[in-house]
Amino acid sequence: MSESRTLLGVDFEVCARNEAVARIDRAFVDRQQLKLAFANAHTLNLASERQDFRNALSRFLVFNDGLGVDLASRIKFGAFFPENLNGTDFVPHYLSTTRHPLRIFFLGSAPGVAEAAANRLVPPGSRHDIAGCHHGYFDAGSADRVLADIRLSQADLVLVAMGNPLQELWIDRHAEATSAPVLMGVGALFDFVSGRLPRAPGWVRAGRVEWLYRLAREPRRLRGRYIVGNWKFLGRVARERASAAAAPSAPTGV
Fold it and tell me: Which of 17, 153, 192, 252 has a CA positioned 20 to 30 A from the CA of residue 143?
């Protein structure tokens, strides 16, 4: 039986990378639709502030993304997560190791980026197929057409790159209408894979401080998320830990 840990009201699946692959693959065999999110400190801050987002995530399989969530697990539960399951690294790993050949629909990011990412992740000769692509800048009037395109594509997997919380809220609201067995919120994956945004050097990623690299490149846009947001996150985790420690233990039988 799999283990879960709850951080700031969000339930995380506790597993190593290849266990995560097997967990997703099982959804295709069980024929049960699976909604997947990768949650980092910023995700949990948003979930703490928005009840609708927290409610949506309760219907997702959630994997741990980043050092902040790992530290929160250590503070609250006394243990780190087995591995860092950030979407940018995990999704390519999943596509290379899954037992299933998949039809994949790429939804999100700026015009042209989804197509570029699709061609990198599903190159000629791949056992997977590109079911379709669409940018993420469509209005409410086009939403039904986008859903129809996904449904008609018979996609097995829909990758949604719209950022938190929009991508998870979109998946939660529209998953059934897509008829896809698995949908994942993948954040900036398309931007990184397509080359639109550079990733940090390997040694920075190995040190688990990629957020510092991103902050240095986009300080105006990301300072609120990382500088203010990280302090908010650590404060929330500390308060949650203190509340758990102060809570009376359940009485034992006599």
Answer: 192
